[in-house]
Design goal:
- The structure is a single chain.
- The protein contains ten helices and 15 strands.
- It is an alpha/beta fold.
- The protein has a seven-stranded parallel β-sheet with strand order 3-2-1-4-5-7-12, sandwiched between helices. A four-stranded mixed β-sheet has the order 6-15-10-13.
- Strand 1, helix 1 and strand 2 (about 35-40) form a beta-alpha-beta unit.
- The two termini are about 25 Å apart.
- Residues about 1-10 have low confidence and may be disordered.
- Bound molecules: nicotinamide-adenine-dinucleotide (NAD) and uridine-5'-diphosphate-glucose.
- Nicotinamide-adenine-dinucleotide (NAD) binds next to helix 1, helix 4, strand 5 and strand 8.
- The site of uridine-5'-diphosphate-glucose has 21 residues, from helix 6 and strand 9.
- InterPro entries: Epimerase_deHydtase (IPR001509), NAD(P)-bd_dom_sf (IPR036291), UDP_G4E (IPR005886).
- It catalyses: UDP-alpha-D-glucose = UDP-alpha-D-galactose.
Length: about 325
Amino acid sequence: MDGKRGRGSLGATVMVTGGAGYIGSHACKALAALGHVPVSFDNYSTGWREAVKYGPAEEGDLRDGARLAEVLARHRPRAVLHFAALSDIAEAGRDPARYWDTNVVGTLRLLEAMAAAGTGQLVFSSTCAVYEAHDGRVLDETCPLGPLNAYGASKRAAEDLIRDTAAASGLRHVIFRYFNVAGADPSAEIGECHRPETHLVPRALAAAAGQGAGLRINGTDYPTPDGTCLRDYVHVCDVVAAHLLALDHLQRGGGPELFNLGSGHGHSVREVIAAVEAATGRSVPVEEGPRRPGDCAALVSGSARAAEALGWTPRHAALEDMIATARAWHEGPGYRR
Ligand SMILES: NC(=O)c1ccc[n+]([C@@H]2O[C@H](COP(=O)([O-])OP(=O)(O)OC[C@H]3O[C@@H](n4cnc5c(N)ncnc54)[C@H](O)[C@@H]3O)[C@@H](O)[C@H]2O)c1
Ligand SMILES: O=c1ccn([C@@H]2O[C@H](COP(=O)(O)OP(=O)(O)O[C@H]3O[C@H](CO)[C@@H](O)[C@H](O)[C@H]3O)[C@@H](O)[C@H]2O)c(=O)[nH]1
């Protein structure tokens, strides 16, 4: 995995909240490959125990301040990568309180515990769902905030909480707003697996493999070239590489930063389906359904700021690369069927 772009000093302990999840497990693998010790902190609500295999596993809930304090005191990490969250856009619309509880209250508990333990570096996973809908326009970090949905609202609140806390305490932090993360570890050791799965790429792969009832396209009447939503897909290994660069930035004494992470290209739902069909040689059975609440027509990233400040460029920006690695994971022995 090419997380080796960010080097930093060897042997640092880094706490990874959500280390059993999709992106967090890839971060743990990349950290361990560089000689760091990734301590996963996870309650396994959407993640998997067997994905925690690159460092110590600490079971715990973000909202449990005493448990966080105990884990931070024992491992004394140099930094925290904070991935743990709930992130199902449709579910957030149905049950916003649960999202604010985990994503905002959980982040507050983490910040309190870090302050008490003297852990002074944080990298936070935010989302492009914090932006206002600007259909067709490339979104950079200066674009007005919406947010687009209740999930985005909880992430925006968590961002504000981090910024206010940092201003008062000197906590050094980097906030990343990811676009749509896709793909898998090229060795197919780990990958994306949620139950239920809501994300387009794994759902299309499952449909191509004849698993489940086929794929519903959420809306075909958007003002886009083929009527379906355009999203900016970014490879999970590129996202992780940016986190390693952020850790270097913080370790060098770098100040607070906010960066989008995307590949800079919009792909429609129909294009993703066609790419899955091309990769698998199988057709994806689809039905056309209504729009999904909380969606907008287009979300495409401008990531110039991360390139300039961190030297980050996506190395796997081609959709085919994301689908090939996701497919290898989906069809390989590690996938949970
Ligand atoms: N996947 C994407 O496309 C995407 C895009 C933008 C932002 N993000 C953000 O990136 C982060 C990681 O996303 P992911 O796709 O890996 O999600 P995921 O669901 O695979 O991983 C989240 C992990 O957090 C854990 N978790 C949830 N609530 C917890 C709690 N209260 N205490 C402890 N652990 C808890 C889960 O068990 C899981 O292992 C999230 O913050 C998400 O909002 C993801
Ligand atoms: O069965 C499906 C699944 C998805 N979609 C559509 O495909 C697009 C991508 O959806 P999905 O893969 O579910 O990702 P998002 O819901 O956009 O959410 C991801 O991307 C967001 C940024 O856009 C992040 O904020 C979230 O954390 C992350 O989960 C959207 O237009 C969906 O409506 C379908 O049409 N059918």
